[in-house]
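REQUEST FORM: STRUCTURE PREDICTION
Request ID: SP-0412
Submitted by: Lab K.M.
Chain count: 1
Length (residues): 275
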Amino acid sequence: MRRTTDSLRTDGRTNDRGVSEVLGFILVFAIILGSVTLLSMTGFQAMQDYQEGEQLRNAERAMEAFAENANDVMRYDGIDTRRGELSLQEGTVTTSDSGTKINITMTKDDSSQIVIPSGSHFSEYGNVTENTINIGAFTYTVDNDRIAYEGGGVVRGDESGSVFLKRPQLRCDNKTTETAVISLVTISADNQSIQSSGQVGFTISEVDNPGRTSNVYTDVDDVSIDVQGSPNERAWNRTLGHGNWERKDGIKGTCDFESDNGKVVVTLVEVDIEY
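STATUS: Completed
RESULT:
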């Protein structure tokens, strides 16, 4: 039987120390290599997450600026066209005249009801048979996140829910002035989309017919806004429970005037968006 013996150096000591140094070097090198690999992977993911977050924040700011320009068409009679820009950064912009539908119902002091759009002043908006207004949407989408201009507000949403970054112009003062103001932008643009990595310009303009319609109703007991078929259900629920609006069953908010002698101002502006 053969015996294994430690190799001897000239000074009579073995070479175990040299072997240990080599193993130690290999171990340290493996730890360093593993650490660099781990840091590069996590660092890349963190950088990617930051870039995606910054992209959405930029889109939010751009959409809010666009909303301000677009709402000028609704606020001022002398303005019928506005322009804006969005940096898409590989995102997609979509225009649609379908999606969220709204019904506005008022109860008068004699218990009669006025339903918009079936009322004569707003009969050309939406679907009179179903008593709904299709407000449409102008939506920027990247991955599973979306930012939309809807009804005059800006909403951000994903698979888990949605929230208005800028609320539509729905105001209820049911005690002091006993006045409700409902101002909505409806989009009649063709269903289309565009994806780009650069800046894209958009033009929003008031359509000729019906364009802008406004009417004042007096001696109103209450006015309700009923939202149907919206992809941004949570955002509308929060909005219709904000201020003096009282949220009812479904996606519905009611402004109930204290003396049953309220005034309601309704303004609808239909616009087209081109890019």
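NOTES: The two ends are 90 Å apart (CA to CA).
Reviewed by: T.R.
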